[in-house]
Design goal:
alpha/beta, 301 residues, Transcription Regulator spoIIAA, Rossmann fold, five-stranded parallel β-sheet, five-stranded mixed β-sheet, 2 domains
C-alpha cells in the first residue's frame, strides 16, 4: 500500500502524533495505530447504519487512505462487499474485473479532471450493458457548475463532504430509495379549480421531459387546464433545457389555463429571465399561493 508523504502527515496530524513520529520513518504499524486512534476520536464505530444487506457490492474510489479506511468499515457494517481503488487507473481495472451495485467516487483524484474522466468511463460501461451500478460522487466542492456537470454526465447521486457525509451516502445506497427515485420522477395531485399539482423529483433528462409532457397532455384532455409545477427538489438544471417550460406554457395557454412554478432555484429563475419567461410564467413560493392565484382567475371566467 503506497500513500504519499502528505497523506501520512495528515493521518498523523489527525491522530495528534505528528510530534511523536518522524514522518520519514513511519511504518505501516504506525499508520494502523494512528488510524485506530482517529476512529476512536471520531467515535466512528458508533455510527448507526439503518441498512443491511448480504448481496450488494461497492467500489470505493478515493486517493485518501483515511477515507478508504472509514468507508470500508462503514460498508462492511452494512453487510456490503467492498473493493477499493486509489486512482482512476485502478478503478477502471476493477470495473472491468468485477460487477458492482454501486461505485463511490471521490471527484478529486487528486484533480477533478481524473474524477470526471472516471465518471465518463463508468457511464460508458453502463451504456454498453456490461454494468448496472449506481454512480455516487463524494466531494468537498460546492461548485454548482461542476456538480451540474456530474449530473449531466449521468451520475445518480452527489454527497457533499459535510459533517455527516459518511452516513449521507446511505440515502443513495438504500435500495428502496433508489428504486423509488428511478420509477417515480414526479408525483401528481388533483386539486380544485381544474388544477393539477406536480412535485418533480428529477428534471435533467429528455426522457423525463417526455414523461411529464405526456402526463400533462393527458391531464389537459381530462379537463384539468391549470398546472402547478413544484421545483423545490430540483437542484440540478441545465439552462439549455429552458425550452421545456415554453412547451408546458404553450400547452396550458392553448387549453385556456394557467401555468405556475413554485420554489424554483435561483438558477432556474435566471434561465427563465434569459428566455424572457420571467413575467409570462408566474413564480410563487408556495402551493397555497398558487392555488389562490388560480382561484382568482377561475372565478372571473
Amino acid at each position: 500500500m503506497e500513500i504519499s508523504r502528505e497523506q501520512v502527515n495528515k493521518i498523523m496530524e489527525l491522530a495528534n502524533k505528528e510530534k511523536e513520529i518522524d514522518i520519514d520513518k513511519v511504518t505501516s504499524i504506525d499508520i494502523s495505530k494512528a488510524l485506530v486512534e482517529i476512529e476512536r476520536k471520531l467515535n466512528f464505530f458508533a455510527v448507526e447504519v439503518n441498512y443491511h444487506t448480504t448481496n450488494k457490492s461497492i467500489l470505493i474510489v478515493d486517493d485518501l487512505e483515511l477515507s478508504l479506511y472509514q468507508l470500508n468499515l462503514l460498508m462492511k457494517k452494512a453487510g456490503i462487499k467492498t473493493y477499493v481503488a486509489r486512482n482512476r487507473e485502478e478503478a477502471e481495472a476493477e470495473i472491468k474485473r468485477h460487477k458492482f451495485d454501486y461505485i463511490l467516487i471521490d471527484l478529486f483524484l487528486p484533480n477533478s479532471e481524473d474524477g470526471l474522466a472516471l465518471i465518463s468511463e463508468a457511464v460508458e460501461a453502463k451504456r454498453a450493458g456490461s454494468q448496472k451500478f449506481k454512480i455516487i460522487i463524494v466531494s468537498g466542492s460546492e461548485d454548482r457548475i461542476l456538480i451540474d456537470k456530474c449530473y449531466n454526465m449521468g451520475i445518480d447521486g452527489y454527497v457533499n463532504k459535510t459533517e455527516n457525509w459518511h452516513t449521507d451516502i446511505f440515502k443513495y445506497i438504500n435500495s428502496d430509495n433508489i428504486k423509488t427515485k428511478d420509477i417515480a420522477t414526479f408525483n401528481k395531485t388533483e386539486l380544485e379549480y381544474k388544477t393539477i399539482y406536480y412535485t418533480l423529483r428529477k428534471f435533467n433528462e429528455r426522457k423525463i421531459f417526455e414523461e411529464i409532457i405526456a402526463d400533462i397532455n393527458s391531464s389537459i384532455i381530462s379537463g384539468k387546464r391549470n398546472l402547478i409545477l413544484d421545483l423545490e427538489k430540483i437542484n440540478v438544471f441545465d439552462q439549455d433545457n429552458t425550452y421545456i417550460f415554453v412547451e408546458i406554457y404553450k400547452i396550458c395557454q392553448d387549453a385556456g389555463g394557467a401555468f405556475i412554478l413554485t420554489n424554483p432555484s435561483e438558477k432556474i429563475k435566471e434561465a427563465l429571465a434569459t428566455a424572457y419567461l420571467e413575467g409570462a410564467i408566474p413564480v410563487l413560493k408556495t402551493k397555497e399561493e398558487a392555488i389562490r392565484y388560480i382561484s382568482e382567475i377561475e372565478e372571473k371566467i
